[in-house]
Design goal:
Elements: E1 5-11, E2 25-26, H1 29-38, E3 43-47, H2 56-66, E4 69-74, H3 77-80, H4 90-110, E5 113-116, H5 129-150, E6 154-156, H6 170-180, E7 185-187, E8 189-190, H7 191-197, H8 201-207, E9 214-217, H9 236-245, E10 251-254, H10 262-285
Length: 286
């Protein structure tokens, strides 16, 4: 298993006002970059305000000053701010597509990839599955075409039913990757989804067919890995072993602890993960 980049979910201070599914690091660009590196991470998975995407030069300056990476940009704030790519109101849907394209342009500046999870919305009540599939196909192709021009990649993320009623399993996500058939349209994983929506974590990882290049890592209750007592955490050695067997490598992001001082838990988690990744890397070379 190649060395992975470990990142922290991060956003600007206004993110604290939103109801979001996980806790993220908040601060100015320089604070986010510096803190992530100081706590032992390679950088951040950034969640920009979708309708007020920052100047990439400002972000680049902060990242370079801290020696931090930003390999992934997260679009989850679309849904948290009332937007959705698949929305019963077509006008809101088009606003979401326009905002997503702005994020693609921003990410392309950094050659970062872009996650597509909650941004697709909770569902379209009253619409048939055929109608939703038709709209999704049009939207996904439009975004893939824009991503190709922006030199980035859209990573479709299956999510548990608590987040969305549409595309809940890795098999469903892979079917869309095959259907769109674009080098700019791939997929990613999320351990909470693997637990909640797959027959088994191993099934979900193997269903990605080695195509996923990013994964969100957290234990039940959306705690960072390695922080909860062992009996309450996922079998991380087994998860990383299956990832290695499938040839998956790339980037991984970690959430903040949902309660308490986030720094000790963040430091504990990154140390725990680096130790496990080092073990799996050694096995891969043997």
């Amino acid at each position: 298993m190649a060395r992975v980049q470990l990142c922290l979910f991060a956003s600007t201070p206004d993110m604290a006002k939103l109801s979001f599914v996980v806790k993220v690091l908040n601060g100015s660009f320089i604070e986010l970059a510096q803190r992530s590196v100081e706590w032992g991470y390679d950088g951040i998975e950034f969640l920009p305000d979708p309708e007020h995407v920052p100047d990439p030069l400002r972000v680049e300056t902060a990242l370079q000053a801290a020696g931090a990476a930003m390999p992934v940009v997260n679009t989850g704030r679309l849904f948290a701010q009332g937007l959705a790519l698949l929305h019963p109101d077509a006008k809101i849907g088009r606003r979401a597509v326009a905002a997503f394209k702005n994020i693609l342009d921003f990410a392309g500046y950094f050659r970062a990839k872009v996650g597509l999870g909650a941004a697709r919305g909770a569902g379209m009540p009253g619409a048939s599955r055929e109608e939703i599939d038709r709209i999704a196909g049009e939207v996904f192709r439009e975004l893939a075409e824009h991503a190709e021009k922006a030199n980035t990649v859209v990573m479709l993320e299956p999510a548990d039913p608590g987040v969305t009623a549409y595309i809940n399993t890795m098999d469903e996500a892979m079917a869309w990757v095959d259907r769109i058939a674009s080098p700019a349209f791939s997929l990613m994983m999320d351990t909470y989804q693997l637990v909640e929506s797959e027959p088994s974590i191993e099934h979900g990882i193997r269903a990605a067919r080695g195509r996923a290049s990013h994964i969100h890592l957290y234990d039940p209750g959306r705690w960072p890995p390695g922080v909860l007592p062992e009996k309450h955490r996922l079998d991380w050695p087994h998860i990383l072993r299956v990832l290695r067997e499938e040839g998956l490598s790339g980037t991984d992001s970690v959430v903040l602890a949902p309660e308490g001082d986030p720094e000790p838990a963040a430091r504990m988690s990154v140390a725990f993960l680096r130790r496990l990744f080092d073990i799996e890397s050694s096995r891969g070379r043997s």
